[in-house]
Amino acid sequence: xxxxxACLRRGAAALTENANVVERRLASPLRTTSAGHHGLAGRxxxxxxxxxxxxxxxxxxxxxxxxxxxxxxRPVMPSAAAAExxxxxxxxNQARLRKLEWVVDKHLQYLKDPLLIGEHxxxxxxxxxxxxxxxxxxxASRNTNxxxxxxxxxxxxxxxxxLHAAVKLYNExxxxxxxxxxxxxxxxxxxxxxxxxxxxxxxxxxxIYNHMISNGPIKPNTIHLNAVLDVCARAGDVExxxxxxxxxxxxxxxxxxxxxYTIILNALRHQSTSSQxxxxxxxxxxxxxxxxxxxxxAIWEEVVTRWQNGQVTVDEELVCAMGRVLTNGxxxxxxxxxxxxxxTMNIPRFDKKASLxxxxxxxxxxxxxxxxxxxxxxxTTTTTQPQPAPVPFKTPxxxxxxxxxxxxxxxxxxxxxxxxxxxxLEKTKRSACGHHYWDHLTKTHGVAPDKDNYLRYLRLAHxxxxxxxxxxxxxxxxxxxxxxxxxxxxxxxxxxxxxxxHAFANACRVFDAMTTKLRYPDPLAMRLFLxxxxxxxxxxxxxxxxxxxxxxxxxxxxxxxAQIVAALDRMWSPFRILMGSFSxxxxxxxxxxxxxxxxxQERQEALxxxxxxxxxxxxxxxxxxxxxxxxxIFKTRRTILQKMVERxxxxxxxxxxxxxxxxxxxxxxxxxxxxxxxxxAPGREFAV
Length: 688
What we know:
Strand order of the largest sheet: 1-2
Radius of gyration: 42 Å
Keywords: Repeat
Number of helices: 30
Mean pLDDT: 78
Helix content: 55-70%
Strand content: under 5%
Region (Disordered): 50-73, 358-413, 667-688
Protein name: Mitochondrial group I intron splicing factor CCM1
Largest sheet: 2 strands, antiparallel
InterPro entries: PPR/CCM1_RNA-binding, PPR_rpt, TPR-like_helical_dom_sf
Low-confidence stretches: 21-58, 72-83, 353-408, 660-688
């Protein structure tokens, strides 16, 4: 039918999509002569073109049917790129992906080692190049084991709170014949623990974990068990947590360790704390707390048994986790904390040492192995309560050689232990034992207290109304740990210790520490200091009642006045520094109005302190509670403070009004110093 080759080629191209293949198949010559078909030498066909005249030295032009087609070449994409690029995407996206494909091919041309690929993927993900790394890992997975690179991708998605995307990568990884390793599951479980969607994280974690146990290529180990427990604990799903805990084995790769028990105890503590803080009824909250403590006691019995058998190591974190569960209970549960630290860390009981008989007191300082029944019976004999000990705390076996080396099985106390003991003493109202435990841990065990330890110790002193102890704590605190709240608590302790004749002297020590360690004194703390001076009058009042002599009564009145005068005199210079700080601010402002607004709250607190000082001065002056020379000075200072308060009140009204903010330093009462910020006139009132 098709006599002419050109006609045959056109017909074949119309029937197939790829015309180049047909042309290559028809490229084999059937005739070697240049004559036309059927011996017609001069016949020209449809595909024939005009040939150039040749000379004797040039080769003759090839026949027309042997030449390549004269149309624009179509870019043929490699099969690898075709699998990664969506041809239905917009043209600009296809162009970007083609460029990205070229970059990936260049990287894979030199990256042959899976270790180098993993390092490159990690660096690229740190820069945020997710598309490039994803395409690179997919192409490298065809002939290389790049499980580490897949782990980096999954970790990146979980770090950016993309749980669904991470699970999809995990499934795609398995489809591409990349077998997940133990690190893959650890990354997934830990990422689920940090997810912002706890319910979804729990469901996905349990599904993957159960698959690992039933028919997974890798069986879960203790690290996977702890990671899944952490997911359930962070989500508050205690029942699922105990369901996962039941999958632990007595021995083997999935046996529980100290971190396992710590996670469970912390989850129970969170459950009891949330029950107390929720809107549940008081009885329901108490029942939930009691159930959590009961479960914690049962877990602790297992911990002690495994600890004695050498199957688990007890550290400070585990002991403090159990102790903080007990502090959520009643007074009896809080008392168990002291027994807990005694028999796990060998810290003596300073609250019962004097009341115990000599043999028992000597035995209490030595580690012993006791069963549950013997522990309960010994607790019953040493206390008046008929109930057994709340928790069968047991000490580890003594394995010390003849050199009497320290027992390495006992956990070493630290800051967490110190904070736990102070909290237990505060809840049991045994503040008198606080300094004994503090000195024992800081001097004997070498614990370096942090800011939280100092604040906890200060609150314990406040609970016991120990003003001298509070002054010692504030004086010993490093400058980096002090704050305004520190001195407020200390002054509140001095106010509460009103029956102590030396409470004001202790308050003066705290005030001197405040002026030394703070850049500017706290106005509220200054008011509390003045209140401690005016409120510590019980011993003066007692002197008046005991004596009928009018002269002695006047002497006691002068003594109280001298105390108030001493407080006011101490406050005068620091108060001037405080008011001067409002004239210059460390914040960058664009107008005097903005600078005034930034210091509104602190300025109001300072003015409230000035009013309290004025009231105290009036009390001294009106009742003649000081010498005439002192009264004269205080009258002058009282006038200065009164004018300052009035001037600031007027200034505040002026600043509230609408003023042009672009005019800098034009407001009333402001002056711009040369090369400095605008300065308020009310800051220059102190002359005495």
